[in-house]
Amino acid sequence: MSRKKSQSSGNKPLPANQQKGEKECSFCHNHKKLTEFYISKNPLFSVDGRVPVCKDCVINKSLNEDGTINELELNKILKKIDRPYYKDLIESAINGFKKEHSYIEDDKVSFYGKEILQRYFRLIAMRQDRDKSYEDSEKDDFVHKTSNTPQSTKEKIAQKYADIKENKLYKNEQIKQESNIKWTKDDKQNMKYIISKLGYDPFEDVGLDEFDRKYCFNLLSGYFDTPGILEDGHKKQCVIEITMSYCQCRKITDELNTELSKLEVNEKRITSLTNAKTSLLSSIANIAKDNNISSNYSKQASQGQDSISAMMKEMEKHDFEEIKVNLFDIKTSEAFRQIDEISNTNISNQLTLDSSEYSDIVKEQRDLIRKYESSIDELKEENRKLKNRIIDLEIDKR
Ligand SMILES: [Zn+2]
Questions:
Q1: What pLDDT, in 10s, does the model give residues 253-290?
Q2: Percent helix, percent strand, percent coil in the chain, to nearest 5
Q3: Tens digit of each residue's pLDDT (9 = 90 or more) over 150-159
Q4: Using CA atoms, how far apart are residues 128 and 211, in angstroms rounded to an integer?
Q5: What is the pLDDT of residues 146-203, one digit of tens each?
Q6: Could you give the 3-state DSSP secondary structure of residue 41?
Q7: Among 258, 252, 249, residue whose Cα is nearest residue 327
Q8: CA-CA distance, 114 to 126, in Å (whole number)?
Q9: What is the DSSP letter of 132?
Q10: Residue 31 half-sphere exposure, CB side, CA atoms within 13 Å?
Q11: Which residues are CB-contacts of 218 (< 8 A; sequence separation ≥ 6)?
Q12: DSSP state letter for 14
């Protein structure tokens, strides 16, 4: 809802274009003409109807060092000066700028953040949004509800630009990743090696997180080291494919472990996850076999070793402990270590375990764990009582 015109104060500021005089910017402390400050209808700024920070400061605070728009900062400052954040208007501002500066290449346009934002502020000063507050735009989920733009375009625009709400999540995610995922020197070297050999980053824009990317680079560099791969464009694509399939496999294993660690295991889900994993592994094996990648995969592989065990070896070499189990407590991981032992620690051997066998083993382990857990609890309780008894006895002795 748009704000009603202030009824409380009788001194309404003069119309914007008639305002004269100067004021000090509360950020850069320069004295500037009133017209150098953006208009806001927020009652907090009702003395002159203008925000306390000058236009230059508002815009500069919303830019990155390279001149591109920092959408999050823009969000924050718009919230502070209580002006709306509309992603569709940012899009319009960019398009308008492009049209007027057709000589600027499309991929360079984003560096003109200042000019784009100046346009943006002109757009939100127009009749449709003149009286809107930040909250108004927030209620619209930052895209105008009432425009002729098709819904699909609106959704695209909504995803294209960041806003405070979604970015909270994104940021947490990033902090989580940054703190957990460390790229060692070797990791970085592998990444550079891959990119230099391919001329591009094969794991960009495919929805991988940091951990997966690192995993993929390390695995792929093992393949690239194998003679005959780099010279063959088709094989190169095959090993990229294999690498990403392994990455998916790892995710499935994670999910499988999470599911199995629950008290109430969803057998259907286990079956479908196990099937998915099995089919991934066999498609990996097929790609490898069809393209003769398996036999000469690893220099260190002794003869007769199949490709999968060799790949496992490679993963282990790269210290991917995490591919095993990482999502639950020590006791359950211990259980999985045992299951792993039963299946000979080799994924290819796991292939021969069908899902029902697998879940049978896990069920048994789980029952054992529960049994031991309850006996631990009983023993603890007994222990506690005994300790109390000792204390009582000692008190009695005195
Ligand atoms: Zn300023």
A1: 888 888 887 777 788 888 888 888 888 888 888 888 88
A2: 60, 5, 35
A3: 888 888 888 8
A4: 46
A5: 777 788 888 888 888 888 775 444 444 444 444 567 788 888 888 988 988 888 888 8
A6: coil
A7: 258
A8: 19
A9: -
A10: 3
A11: 186, 187, 190, 318, 320
A12: P
- Give the mean model confidence (pLDDT) for residues 92-101: 93
Distance (angstroms) between ligand 1 centre and the Cα of 112 equals 20
Task: Please report where in the chains the tokens 């008190």 appear, as a residue.
Answer: 395
Say how many Å lie between the CA of residue 206 and the centre of ligand 1: 42
Structure token digits, residue 43: 């009652």
**CA 32 / ligand 1 centre spacing (Å):** 8
Q: What percent of the chain has pLDDT over 90?
A: 26
Between 99 and 183, name the one with better pLDDT.
Answer: 99
What spacing in Å lies between the alpha carbon of 63 and ligand 1's midpoint?
A: 14
How far is ligand 1, taken at its centre, from the CA of residue 383, in Å? 70
Say if residues 23 and 48 touch (Cβ distance below 8 Å). yes
Rounded to 5°, angle at Cα 229 from 324 and 199: 90
Q: Which of 327, 254, 248, 321 is nearest to 280 (CA)?
A: 248
Question: What is the distance between the alpha carbons of residues 257 and 199, in angstroms, rounded to a whole number?
Answer: 37
What is the 37 CA–ligand 1 centroid distance (Å)?
9
Which structure tokens are listed for 274?
């196990």
pTM of the entire structure? 0.43
Query: Among candidates 370, 377, 373, which has minimal Cα distance to 265?
Result: 370
How far does the centroid of ligand 1 lie from the alpha carbon of residue 51, in Å? 11
Distance 36 CA to ligand 1 centre (A): 9
Ligand 1 centroid to 35 CA: how many Å? 12
The candidate with the shortest Cα–Cα distance to 345, out of 366, 315, 324, is 324
Question: What distance in angstroms lies between residue 28's CA and the mean position of ligand 1's atoms?
Answer: 4
- Domains of the chain, by residue range, sit at 24-171, 181-327
Q: Rounding to the nearest 10 degrees, give the CA dihedral for residues 60, 61, 64, 69.
A: -80
Quote the tokens at residue 159: 């995803």
C-alpha count within 13 angstroms, C-beta hemisphere, residue 183: 18
C-alpha of residue 81 to centroid of ligand 1, in Å: 13
The alpha carbon of 57 and the centre of ligand 1 are apart by a number of angstroms equal to 4
250 CA to centre of ligand 1 in angstroms? 52
CA 178/CA 195 separation, integer angstroms: 22
Q: Kindly give the distance from the C-alpha atom of residue 5 to the centroid of ligand 1, in angstroms, as a whole number.
A: 27
